[in-house]
Each structure stands twice: as structure tokens, then as C-alpha cells.
Write the C-alpha cells for this entry.
Amino acid sequence: MIYLDYAATAPLDPNALKAMLPFLRTDSGFANPASAHGPGVQARNAVEAARAQVAALIGAEPNEIVWTSGATESNNLALKGAIEFRGLRSAHIVSARTEHKSVLDSCRHLETVGVRVTLLKPDADGLVSPEQVLEALRPDTTLVSLMWVNNEIGAVQEVQRLAPLLRERGVLFHVDAVQGVGKLPLDLRSTPIDLLSVSAHKLYGPKGIGALYVRRKPRARLAPQMHGGGHEWGMRSGTLPTHQAVGMGVACEVAAARLRVDAERLGGLRELMWQCLQVLPRIHRNGPAESGNTRRAPHVLNVSFEGVEGESLRAALPQLAVSSGSACSSATQEPSYVLRALGRDDELANASLRFSFGRGTTAEHVELAAQMVIRQVQRLRELSPLWTA
Amino acid sequence: MDSVIPSETNPFGYPETIWRLFQETPRAGGFPPDTEGVVTGEAGSHASRAVLRLQLRFDEKGRVADARFRAYGCPSTIAVGAWIAGWCLGKTAFTLSGLQSADLRQTLEISYDRAHCAMVGEDALRAALDRYSGEQKT
């Protein structure tokens, strides 16, 4: 099977695994990093070194990194924590329809307690312009939450241009950066984003850990959503998983070292796949139409295929691990809400594949995968009584 | 770190018969236009993402000598088309008319939430038999 689903998750980097193992053994490193004894301090030192590695990747200070269980928790903490801390039950949030469910569902929850939410509709390429965001601001707007790189279509939002505009207006800015960190350069010293969510397993770290960047100057205060021992400066209680933190730290360090080379190589594979698929008529690239790299993430290509049914398309490719435009419910066959927001009809939204590339992907894998897709799309089209060439 | 990993042949867990018929699609296609003795039945809709076109070629003794199908839809819909096209062979219109969607569901292990796939199969077969019956009367 060819794995082209790196945007869903990436395998653990071997260096990260090696660094994690001592902290999983019973003879060393298992101590609670909050404990005031030798082994505890040793674990604490490892956690803090990892925190610095995460911070370095995004141009942050180590004490601006809050460990979480992953990006879903980071997004929940950012949105709910920011609103709750300010006690603004009637606050206004601006976000977009194409956000990750953990942002959309957090917004939905906040609406039930009185917060008002504006979800912006992206253009046909999946982009929300900074001007569009500014137009949606109201006097009571507290927070803007926008994802940097869309997980389904790879559209890159102009968060660097938007950030100073929101700072000028005194509006908090949260960025779900899960698909961007480690893939694209980001320096938070020069980009005034207040809150930024990161996941370890999308950048070859372990699953089950992530981080939320919480700016110190000016301070982006949050109310905790997990109460307990007051860990993480009172923002997120819970015993820290030393091995997970260490793994994420090493993964971030590796990502920082490889960022430019990886981005260039993956962007090439993305375009190779698109070129190979040109054999097929009536296919549609979902995401930014711009041919340059600035608005397209290097690792994601999303394509809709006319004339085939989505479930059959996926089933016809058992040797290919890709994500599809269909949600998880096979019973409802709900098409992707992201592609629907771009204006794709139900059929095209359903008959789509997201190819995402990673360090293990080669040009040979891409060409082989493209051949499989071409063969099966042609087979299903020939099989269809509705298809007219 | 490699992108090639071991995999199962039926990773989505479809019932065995559906999986085989979906992959092999025996009798997929259509007869050349004006082939003698051919009737066509179609059912389903694009909007419901299940369309089945069934073609039966009857011999002079009133038995199905050959059959073809085309289908647009999920693997169950496609498997239903392939199964009916194979099952029809050698049978008379009277025998064929006894097939119901419940039989298809049981034979192909089609789950309740996919019941519409079996119904499309029954409807396409009935449409073809209605056409055959109409031609016999003229």
C-alpha cells in the first residue's frame, strides 16, 4: 500500500522515537516531571528542553508554549479559554466555514452560552482575505480564529498579513497552525499572532501531544479548561507526559532543520501528481488556483473526479492510503463541508481525493499512485450508465 | 521511513461477495445497438447516487441467453448489477419476476442502510421485464 495521507498523520521520526524510549523505561526517566526529587527534576529538564525545541520552530519563547493533548485541545483551550477569561458571554468571534471541526464545534458551543459567531465564506479557492476578516469585525469582536493551512485542500491563508491588522484593532488572533508548522516558515517574533495551535503527530512526532502558543507580550490570557494542579502556568493542569513532550521536541527540531528542503521536494511531488492526473478529462483541483507556491501548502493536493461515485472511488483504491472528500459516516455519505463551502456540488465534493505527501514519499510512489487512480477512474466511468466521454 | 506499508485486500470490510463482484464486475458493459432480443431496464437516479442499467438478451425460447449491466453508485450498487446479470442467465421472465430486493439483500449481505442498492436492482430488473413483456405483446 502506498501511503499518501501525511496530512492525517505522519509516522514517528526515528530520532524522536529514540529520544522518547528512555522515558518509557522503568529504570530511568519515568518520574513525574512535577516531582521535587532527582528523577523528577531530570524529567522536568527533559520537558523544558523539549518546550524550547517547540518554541524555536515557531520563533517563540519557551514559556509561551503550553503542552496539550493535541490540536483539538489546543483549539478548544484557545477559543473557550480566551472568551471565558474575559467573561464576555456576549462576545463576538470571527472564523471561517472551512475551519477544523475542533474550531467550529468550539464556536458552536460558545454560541450556546451567548457568544455570537460569524463564519466567513471563503472564495472558490478556499481563501479568506484579510480585508474580508476586517469587514466582519464589530466593536464587540474579541477573537478571530483562522487556520493557517487548510487540512483538506492545502489553502494557505495570509495570517502573517492579517496578524498586525488585528493587533492594531485590539482583537485577539488565534491560528490553527497544525498543517503549517514544520511545513512553512513562521516567526512569531515578527508576526503578532496571540494564540497558535500545534500538533505533534502531523510533523512526525508522537500522537497524543500538542501545544498551544500563548503570547506573553502582550499577554494573551486564558481561563483553563482543565482544572487541577495548576500545571502549565495554571492554563492546563495534568501530569505532563515526558516521553511525548520529548518526542515532539525532537520532531520540531528535525522539522526546523529540514523545513526548506522538505517544502521544496513535497511541492514538486504535489505538482508531479497533478501533472500525471492530467490524462483524465474533467477533473478539478480543489484549492488555490494560483500556480505559485505561496497560497498552496507543499504537501497537499485535493482533486475531484467527475462521473464517479465517491465511495466506489475510494473502495477501488485499496492499495492507496488517501483521504477522501467524504466524512466518516458511510451511512449518510456526507460530502466534505470544506469542499461544499468552496461551492463544489455534492457529487464533486464526494468524489474527491486528498493526496498528502511526506518524507517517505518518492516520485515513483506518486507516479504509481497516479496510475492506480487513473485506471480506476477510467474503469468506474466506463462502468457508469451516466458517463459520456 | 517509507511510504509503502503492508495492507489488507479488503480494508473497508465489505461482504465478500460484494467485494469480489465490485472488483471483477463480470458482465459489465452493454450490447451493441440493435442486438436482437435485447431489452433494457434502468432504475435509480443520479441524485441518489445509485443508477443501474440492466440489459437482458432473450433467446427464442424465452430464456436469458446473455446479460450486461452498467452501474453508477457505491460498491453495493455495482455488485447488485453484476450479480443480477449473472443470476439471470438461463432463466425465463417468469422466474426472474420472482426476485425481490429482500433476496438480494440476503444473498449479498447488504446492510439495512444500503437497502436502496438492492431496491435499485429489483427495480431495474422489473423495468427490463416490463419492456420484454411489452414487446411480447406487440
Notes: Chain A has eleven helices and 13 strands.
